[in-house]
Amino acid sequence: MEENQKIRIFNPAVGDEEKAINDLIKYGVGIFDLTENQIEEWDKNQISLGRRNFGFERKICIANKYYFEESVFIYFPWRNSLLVTFNSNIFRSVRYLRNKYKINHAEQELLFGKEVAIVGMSVGMSVLKAMILEGLAGKYRIADFDSVEISNLNRIDSGVYSVGVPKVEVAYQFAMEQDPFLDFSIWNCPIDEGNVKQFIEGPLDMVIDECDSIFTKILLRKEAKFKRIPVLMHTSDRGMLDIELYNDRNFDFSWTLSKYSHLSKEEILEKAILIIADYCDFNGADERSKFSFSEIGKSINSWPQLGGDVLAGGGNVASAVRAIFLGDKVAGGRYLLDPTLKFKNQISGE
User: Fold this and answer.
1) What is the 3-state secondary structure (H, E, C) of 121-185?
2) In a domain, 350, yes or no
3) pLDDT tens, 226-266?
4) Is residue 100 part of a domain?
């Protein structure tokens, strides 16, 4: 994704940033002022937020109009618009207000200190959206090398105008319009042997695997296991949610895809169908899934996924991430979250 397609945050009180804002307006960029709405909501919710101590003086003059002195201006290139908002603390106090007390203030601050990597922006798009709606992390790394296709619209919550746009770009734009103060690293490329270490380096708290490549799935787990980072994966069939706690010394990872990490890339690709069938418990799949699997390469090109299953999976992964990050006792294992089945952990039996 090109740098000129990312948002830019301007503080008119700093250096020559006021001039940069005026230059954008001069070239026809519109302005969407959110500050009055934020003041109104804050005052309406004093019982939760306390008395307001901002938004009293309009001291900043931009294009012959005065704005509140605490204002920042955020340029959204895909909308050709400047958003005027208060700083991140004020913005987030109102933006995530309705989380309270499902997520309390201290927990919300803790969550904003987390960094999550998501690989695969089809099912991963639903995961990302659910996490951002709740404010479950402050930093994200997202990876996908594909662009949106018309056939993706059965499960990607986007629209026809996103067709042909890289999936990571669609995801980024959604994220920034929800919370422009999030920190994003965008990888518009496959994750492979050449970059997996870099992708999972540093203080990373969670890896969410929603990619299609069986080799990449195994590669991610090999690296996550080495660096003791939890991995979550949702599979549409039977609402399958895998919680792999590689940061827990007592976690039994023998059932996870990491058990294939000793194989070479050639061996993994050669045995891909067998690995998938074994790992996903093909014998336990419903008849439609089994039939679909048998038709890949014949009447269909890839495994089918339904929008409802994908959306439910995004919510399920987000719930698991929240529980893990907030210190709830979450047992690693495989959970089937299918309304037609009794919910239980398929590994521990709980």
Assistant:
1) CCHHHHHHHHHHHHCCCCEEEEECCCECCHHHHHCCCCCHHHCCCEHHHHHHHHHHHHCCCCEEE
2) no
3) 999 999 999 888 888 999 999 999 999 999 999 999 999 99
4) no
Q: Position of tokens 């059965």? A: 154
**Residue 310 and residue 123: Cα distance in Å, rounded?**
6
């904003």: which residue's tokens?
112
How big is the chain, counted in residues?
Answer: 350
Beta strand pairing call for 72-76 and 8-10:
antiparallel
DSSP H or E stretch at residue 240: strand 240-244
Co-location of 336 and 246 in the same domain: yes
Find the distance separating the first CA and the last CA of the chain, reported in whole Å. 44
CA-to-CA distance for 198 and 183, rounded, in angstroms? 17
167 and 313 both lie in a single domain: yes
Distance CA 17, CA 275 (A): 55
d(CA 61, CA 97): 30
Whether residue 234 sits in one domain with residue 123: yes
- Measured CA to CA, the distance from residue 156 to residue 122 in angstroms comes to 6
Q: Enter the pTM of the model.
A: 0.93
